[in-house]
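Intended use. Records like the one below are meant for learning the mapping from a protein sequence to its folded structure. Do not use them to infer anything beyond what is encoded.
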Amino acid sequence: MREKLSIAAARRVALAAQGFAEPRPDGPPTRRHLNKVLARLGLFQIDSVSVIVRAHYMPLFSRLGPYPQSLLEDNAWSKRRVLFEYWAHEASLLPLEAWPLWQWRMRRAERHENIYGRLAEFGRERRDLIADIHRRIESEGGLAASDIEGDKGQGGWWGWSDTKHALEWLFWAGQITASTRRPSFERVYDLPQRVIPQAIRDLPVPDEAEAHRELTRIASRALGVATASDLRDYFRLPAEGYKDRIAELVEEGSLLPVSVEGWSQQAWLSPDARFPRKIEARALLAPFDPLVWERSRAERLFDFRYRIEIYTPAEKRAFGYYVLPFLLGERVVARVDLKADRAASVLRVQSAHSEPHAPAETAEQLLAELRLMADWLGLEKIEIAGAGDLAPALSRAAAG
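Structure written out for the chain above:
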């Protein structure tokens, strides 16, 4: 067993665990490819921001290259689904077979625990409304907040109406689930027994401690090598008792202790970890890709400090509004602020910045990936602004 990893080896382990050690498919990606990525990652984080494309579409593109977005949609929000929606890392698409692993969180939510504080307060105070809306879905079938009489979609906490609060409380508690999404991305809710297959609902439900152990095993396989805080963050598991879960997994051999060069915390290696000698990846990463979503881990692995600046005032942004890291080989070598201007059919590169260790071919490789993305999104042109130290080289590559 390896007891110490260099930071370069740790990077390769992490990239292999995330699927970046394998070439993209030669032909059009299929459900088999989606299932393989999902088995590695364990989830796709959902985000409604659509500056380029909604973030849950990106992890498949980063690993598989261009694929029909209907491949994800059909498997998430149709009768052929292999995914369901629930709160994991954040709002996420999860494999159907993981439904039993989240019953502990649903039961906690019913007790107004492990749920956003204001929503828990609403659940205690408005049981009457929650029960009424549940009965209405039970009798009428799938409903969105906008379908329910009197819902204005505004007011209340976070700009939510009381109806939206009630629906979200029921969703957290597992009493309703997402049956589909409308073109506006509005969630349509229905009863689990009309959405989740009977065979899935009949699976044994583990107790809370075992559910946390299994979710940690999944996180460990997805990360390859990680600290305890990295593992707990992957599915946002409770801190209480988590040291015991780690100890139990170490005892059974599901986590292997290692030290990683430059890391001050104890690291844990997955028994399934792979140790490729070289990684030749090329990918643009969404801000919510599991390779980089835990920012301190991205900094420890790649020496890459990354923050999303959507909510930062424009004059205070260091790199741009919606910035994607660019992975080349085994390192994150650049970042680009992108916008899909669909009306003009243009992928706009609003800024491009290189990292200190970026190789000479960064601009050419980044341009190739941008062209791949533009084609995937159905955009005819790429336009590069002059912001950022990498922009001139990117413009020269495009002109050439």
